[in-house]
Design brief:
Helix content is 30%, strand content 25%. By secondary structure, the chain is of the alpha+beta class. The longest helix is centred in the middle third of the chain and has 16 residues, at 117-132.
Length: 220
């Protein structure tokens, strides 16, 4: 019956770091946290009570300058909105993933590590096509060789090979997920071996054939 924010400072600090990558003025994490806490307290009555539900918190920042041109803006607006949400996926079964071999969500040197609208837009058409084929989401591969696992939809991907948990490294093309970081820390605290290293689709298939692929999941 109580309210709790999930690692809000880590999210606020990432919000500031990624704004800088997008040539936007970073928002002071303390100011953002104060705003989030004030808003959540004011709208606590919207918190759903059913199992698996939450109050989704989304900070947003965008250019608000009355100017048309291609340059970094001189003025920005920041806001936070809330929404009661249920489970992200309605199906209570393992997800069916479409391996995308032609399109890319992000490329090295780009903005794949930022929560920018452009990254979501790049994923929409392949996701719609995957759903039309009867799949739930897209398993993204790298933009260069089309063989290394990157993300599942908008989630970080984890693979359990035997007793070892493996997840792709933060190389600049995937989001440094706070949930990802939490899973790594909790797994290691419980004595689970965790490796942050590239995982190829071929290695995944070989592990499955050998009976070593125990689990594959996304965090976000």
């Amino acid at each position: 019956g109580a309210l709790a924010l999930f690692r809000p400072r880590a999210h606020a600090e990432r919000f500031a770091r990624r704004a800088a990558r997008l040539a936007m003025s970073p928002l002071d994490p303390d100011l953002l946290l104060d705003g989030v806490r004030t808003l959540v307290r004011a709208d606590a009555g919207w918190m759903p009570a059913a199992q698996g539900t939450a109050l989704y918190v989304r900070p947003v920042m965008f250019a608000s300058e009355p100017f048309l041109g291609v340059r970094a803006a001189h003025a920005y607006a920041a806001l936070v909105f809330l929404s009661p949400v249920g489970g992200y996926f309605a199906a209570e079964r393992p997800l069916r993933l479409w391996v995308e071999r032609t399109r890319s969500r992000a490329a090295p040197g780009g903005i794949g590590a930022a929560k920018a609208s452009a990254n979501y837009v790049a994923s929409l058409l392949p996701a719609e096509e995957a759903k039309a084929r009867g799949f739930d989401q897209v398993l993204w591969l790298d933009a260069c060789e089309r063989r290394w696992l990157e993300e599942i939809g908008t989630m970080n991907v984890f693979v359990r090979l035997g007793e070892t948990l493996v997840t792709p490294p933060l190389s600049g093309t995937i989001l440094a997920g706070v949930t990802r970081d939490s899973v790594i820390a909790l797994a290691r605290a419980r004595g689970v071996a965790v490796e942050e290293r590239p995982v190829s689709l071929e290695a995944l298939q070989a592990a499955h054939g050998a009976g070593r692929l125990r689990e594959l999941f996304g965090t976000g």
